[in-house]
Amino acid sequence: MTALEAIYSDYELLEADDRYRLLIDLGRALEPMPDALKTDATLVRGCSAAVWVYPTVSADGTLHFLADSNAAITKGIIALLLTAVQDRSPVEIVATDIEAALAPFDLKNQLSSNRTQGIPNMIALIRKTAERLSQQEG
To answer: Contact at 8 Å (CB) between 79 and 67?
Structure first.
């Protein structure tokens, strides 16, 4: 069972308010992102809340993302999204259907459109980063 599947096994049993709490808890569990990395260059465009995503490449070539948001639910959403791709190789991330991985959570129907409007932009930023780095590998 993947980490995302494990989260979903809890998520699917919860009522709406508890699902919010689960997302908030996921966001709280993100490793801290230094304020110095929260710049215009790491800001995800098109989100109603501020969201920053900073990729790092580990010694083994896997991508590790630092992320943060000024809104608790949005921080939880980016934490959930990162669960699908964290510490994988750029090639693996490019091959991952992130939207399909998140589909069981049905975020568009669980959360307001304001909260979910930036998700495609978060996914696009992660995918573009992985694509760029996978081309450098080959």
So the answer is: yes
Q: Would you name the residues annotated as active-site residues?
A: 47
Alpha-carbon distance of 54 to 12, in angstroms, equals: 30
Let me know: does 76 contact 21? Beta carbons within 8 Å.
no
Tokens of 3: 């980490």
Residue 29, helix vs strand vs coil = helix
The identity of residue 49, as a single letter, is A
Q: What gap in Å lies between CA 20 and CA 24, rounded to an integer?
A: 6
Nearest to 75 by CA among 16, 125, 32: 32
Q: How many other CB atoms are found less than 10 A from the CB of residue 2? A: 10
The domain defined by 3-137 folds into Sufe protein. Chain: A (3.90.1010)
107 backbone dihedrals φ, ψ, rounded to 5°: -60, -35
H or E element: which one contains 65? strand 63-69
C-alpha to C-alpha distances, 76 to 21, 73, 134, nearest whole angstrom: 9, 5, 27
Q: Read off the pLDDT of residues 54-105 as tens digits, 9 standing for 90 and up.
A: 999 999 999 999 999 999 999 999 999 999 999 999 999 999 999 999 999 9
pTM given for the model: 0.92
